[in-house]
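Hello,

I think I submitted the 2-acetamido-2-deoxy-beta-D-glucopyranose job twice by accident. Can you confirm which output corresponds to this input? Input:
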Amino acid sequence: MKPRLLRLVPLFFVILSLFLSVSSTQFRGSDRAHSQRPLRDRAIQSDSWGIPDKDGGRGTRSAALAFDEATALLRKIRPASAPWWNFKKSGVLGTSAYYAKELFFLLFMNGPPQHDLLTTDPHPKKLGHSLSQAVKLLEEAAADKNPDAMFTLAEMNFYGNYTHPRNYSEAFRRYHELATLNGNASAQYMVGFMYATGIGGAVKQDQARALLYHTLAAEGGDIRSEMTVAYRYSSAIATPRNCEDAVYYYKSVADKAIKYTRSGPPGGHTLPRESYRIADEEGGIYGEGASVSSSGPNARHGSVVSDAYSSLDDVVEYMDLQARKGDLRASFNLAKLNYDGARSSQRNLPEAKKRFLEIARMYWTKDGKTKPNVSASTAKLASKAAGYLGRMFLRGEGMPQSFAIAKTWFTRGIEHGDALSQYSMGLMYLNNLGVPKDPVKAADFFGAAADQDLPPAQVRLGALFLDQGDVQTALKYFDLAARHGHLEAYYYLAELTRYGVGKDKSCPVASAYYKIVAEKAEAISTSFPEANDAYNDGDLETALVGYMMAAEQGFEVGQANVAYLLDQAKTRVTLSSLIPFMKRKAALASDAFLALIYWTRSAEQKNVDSMVKLGDYYLQGLGTSPDQEKAAACYQAAMEEVPPSAQAMWNLGWMHENGIGIEQDFHLAKRHYDLALETNPREAYLPVVLALYKLRFRSWWNTVTHGNVKSIQEEPVIKKDWSLSEWLAAFLEAEIAGWDNLEPDDYEETHMPGGDDDYGYDDIDSEILESLVILALTGVLAFLVYYRGQRQRRQEERRRQQQQQQQQQQQQQNQGQAPAGQPQQQNQQPQQPEDRGMFPHPNDPEFMNWAAGAIGH
Ligand SMILES: *[C@@H]1O[C@H](CO)[C@@H](O)[C@H](O)[C@H]1NC(C)=O
Ligand SMILES: *[C@@H]1O[C@H](CO)[C@@H](O)[C@H](O)[C@H]1NC(C)=O
Ligand SMILES: *[C@@H]1O[C@H](CO)[C@@H](O)[C@H](O)[C@H]1NC(C)=O
Ligand SMILES: *[C@@H]1O[C@H](CO)[C@@H](O)[C@H](O)[C@H]1NC(C)=O
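Support: Only one job matched these inputs. Its output is below.
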């Protein structure tokens, strides 16, 4: 690393691009006129044949014709490209371009036109000529009750297809019209979704109607509605918990998922994972280290392929270099990466084939002979490559399908005990692919591969045992495969659990298994890919809508993403927060109430960071009334998860220290701070050490002044009669060694939980720090002396007030007007019922919990 140089590079680009943008402003006007001309030409062209027929024939036939005409017009409209000011903030160049843009707007303009998220633009831009013509045609057809036209109009208003401005009210009207016209499940789903989220203010949130429409759509076979309904029943969202119903709908989706995978080439469709937490790109909700997501079960998984995807290019470059140097492992990994694809790199089958073949050729010559004098490790890798080559031939991936060639490669791989070759050969025998059907041989091959812990082989073997009626052995193999998250394994486990075959019958467990299956088949039910693309292009609205749909379907990742996008509690000081217009955008984008709902749902699904976030929301009263006890409960829950959240421990320590939400107790506070340090020694060190200093001081003060808070126990009591300088010396002595990395921000009392610890400066001189510390401590001391005086005065005042009150009460009692209603009301404090059968009133505080799902069950 050469940090100094790297830091200078963006600066250089900023200056350069600033210069470029200034010098090019004068050309921009003419540019734009130029780029618009082709569009207009096209419109004129279509004019000549785009006039609706004037015979006034109002039958369905002419409506259909009008629809076709409109479609032809629409097809010619270029999809709206991302506005030029939205580009990715990645890499040195991207970053510098990004900041150059920010700077440019800051200096020369009032910012790009910011469109409010999830609202209907009150002043939509005029439609282009061909678009307005198409809309006119569609509206005519829709008036004639043409369902296709209605649907297209609705979609255009909802998604903004074909550059049509969004109007959520209009979209809702159209969807609703279509849903009532012919019970179209897609339209019913959309109506349900809009009722559930109240998106864009098109319609008032109404969970009961949402469930109704989703149920109708689910009966009509809409997968997204099925998942939504199942999720609502299983999490008790706006309906009583009902496991049987949840299983019914989840199973329907799982069946479709299995059908989809099995419809693929031999071995099944691959199901690429598209659901990513966008927060992960920034190190998690709380930034690197403070978030659990960068280390927890929710974490990105630790392989070259997915782990460091932000720097995947670097990894690839490095591997490429190694491969060129003749490192066969690197070469093989690259080939695998090309074959599997990863988040930031598409599958590249020809390239994969080339690489695999190179490796295989190291051992096998063209005519199938083995080369002499090849090391064992090379032979091993070559056999693995053979397995992949065979698989590609078997499935016809990147080359024409050929069972014969596939079999040749598998035979070679099997010689060296390659698991993939064994499994694939088993598949050929099982399914009569190029070889005569022979289940016994197939089982042998599967067994060999299963012993090497290859999940698909374990599943196939388990299924064969299940056919034979050997449920226990089958279960063993399914369990093994499920460890690797294999979809079909979960499906079998779900089925067996549901009917209690070989396992205890359990509806909740079956429901959980089915949910996993349903959510693994992202391809059939989600809009994650579109949402991810939109997010990367800076189109937040499309991204938000896509994630929101997934969130409603019960995807934890979707919920976390929506909440993250809507989050209000971001107090991170970044460049963007310094720029006024960016702040405005953040405020518009956020809707604390919705964010709270999705944090809640995500937390319910065991996202530890979301639990902490939920605590922050309750603490600060965002989207709800402040409730310190609930906040403490949230932090407590996050602390007890595995892995625990250091941030939650820290927050709890802070609450103990200040007696917020829980009893003030310096001893417990210290324990929590220590725990936070233990959990996350690297990132938590600085805040914890600082907090401990402050805490020790307060504890000492408490002891000295005989306060009524429990002080830290193990600490020796510092004598009172020290002079200030003596005391400071002793105080600083204790852990002076660890003070090298401090930054001044951390002294501030405002260092609240929920804020992100953004350590910008790391090379502050320790000497300066020491003097700063001394200064700060002196200040604190002075303040405390003052504070003690204040407190005494306040206590006196309180005593006086109490006396007055007592007198008043006595007077009241004498008058016989004791306030009778009060104690009763307190008793009525609702204990949350397990199931809420009734719909709470939207203004009822309970309503929030009800809409978000059961909390704390
Ligand atoms: C709903 O209607 C649209 C337009 O007619 C059609 O494309 C879509 O397939 C329909 N959906 C279902 C589930 O029938
Ligand atoms: C409109 O765009 C959305 C999202 O990109 C897409 O899912 C939908 O199919 C499109 N609808 C039409 C009618 O093109
Ligand atoms: C959106 O559609 C509604 C009717 O569906 C209409 O009243 C309203 O004016 C439209 N808004 C805009 C900005 O076009
Ligand atoms: C194989 O290796 C041995 C020793 O490393 C060497 O003597 C022999 O000539 C090699 N044979 C071939 C065919 O390269």
